[in-house]
Specification:
mainly alpha; elongated; 0% strand
Length: 104
């Protein structure tokens, strides 16, 4: 809610230099409504069967999955920064999973 006034003001200021074309409109609709909508629908369907800790842990893997998608589909570079960040994220997920294992 705090960002809405600033966004509205910037939109008004940039309105004269903006343009609207049909392909951009349909890209926005397909990206926003279809891809995000389907993604959220799948996530909330899966969320019903997960505990809060499991859901939070699974959600931490999203940046890595996105980066892998960028590498595979967009030919993005694998950088040292990406490897370090992915290792840190996966290490945190591993700590949660290992901590949940019962001690014998």
């Amino acid at each position: 809610m705090r960002a809405a006034p600033l966004t509205a003001a910037l939109s008004v200021v940039t309105l004269p230099s903006s343009s609207l074309d049909s392909s951009g409109f349909w890209y926005a609709v397909s990206s926003g409504a279809l891809a995000s909508g389907v993604g959220y629908a799948l996530w909330y369907t899966a969320l019903c069967g997960l505990k809060a800790t499991s859901a939070a842990t699974a959600q931490l893997s999203v940046p890595i999955l996105t980066a892998v998608g960028g590498i595979v589909y967009l030919d993005e570079a694998i950088t040292l920064r990406l490897l370090i960040a992915s290792t840190a994220i996966l290490g945190g997920i591993a700590l949660v999973i290992i901590d949940k294992q019962p001690v014998r």
